[in-house]
Amino acid sequence: MNFPGMGGSTPRIPNLGGGNTPPGFDPNDPNVKWLTNAMESCYAKTVMSGAAGFALGGLFGMFMASMAYDTPYHVPGAGTPGAAPTVPGAAPAVPLSELPLRKQLAHGFRDMGQRSWSTAKNFGAVGALFAGIECGIEGLRAKNDMGNGVAAGCLTGAILARNGGPQAAAVGCAGFAAFSAAIDAWMRMPKDED
């Protein structure tokens, strides 16, 4: 039984630069064409961007949660002048440093998990929203240029800031559009081969 890449009687795909390429997938195979078309669809791009944003957001949330406290012994509001008063009849807040190690670790991991989940959801939503809008704009304009990313950034920023009113939506539009333009310009720069 021969599988691609194992040698044998597997046909080689000719290379335009001369010689033969290692055995692989035939670009004219209907299954390869179907998979390529599926991966280039707006739905797949939106889902992949949302999933990548979710994963990156989770990692970023874990990192930021580990950096959230000045010291590992800090309990927000405990013993701070002007802090919110405790609930009458409730047990006073115990500083984290006085808890057993197991409870300190449990508290830290619980907080890290909550922050990671929240950040992952936010990054996933932003990634999916931007990718879906950009792909839709690219399909409508039938062009792949920097204008698609800038317009998608503007719409994404305005949608995310819509609850803050028209001024917040305008600032969100301008901020996301500028960031998208900067990233897109950097990604489209010719690479030095030195």
Automatic annotation (TrEMBL):
UniProt keywords, alphabetically: Membrane, Mitochondrion, Mitochondrion inner membrane, Protein transport, Translocation, Transmembrane, Transmembrane helix, Transport
Compartments, record wording: Mitochondrion inner membrane
Database matches in Pfam families: Tim17
UniProt topology in membrane: Multi-pass membrane protein
Principal subcellular localisation of the protein: mitochondrion
InterPro entries registered for this protein in UniProt: TIM22
Region (Disordered): 1-29
Task of the protein: Essential core component of the TIM22 complex, a complex that mediates the import and insertion of multi-pass transmembrane proteins into the mitochondrial inner membrane. In the TIM22 complex, it constitutes the voltage-activated and signal-gated channel. Forms a twin-pore translocase that uses the membrane potential as external driving force in 2 voltage-dependent steps.
Subunit structure, interactors included: Component of the TIM22 complex.
Family to which the UniProt record says this protein belongs: Belongs to the Tim17/Tim22/Tim23 family.
Protein name as catalogued: Mitochondrial import inner membrane translocase subunit TIM22
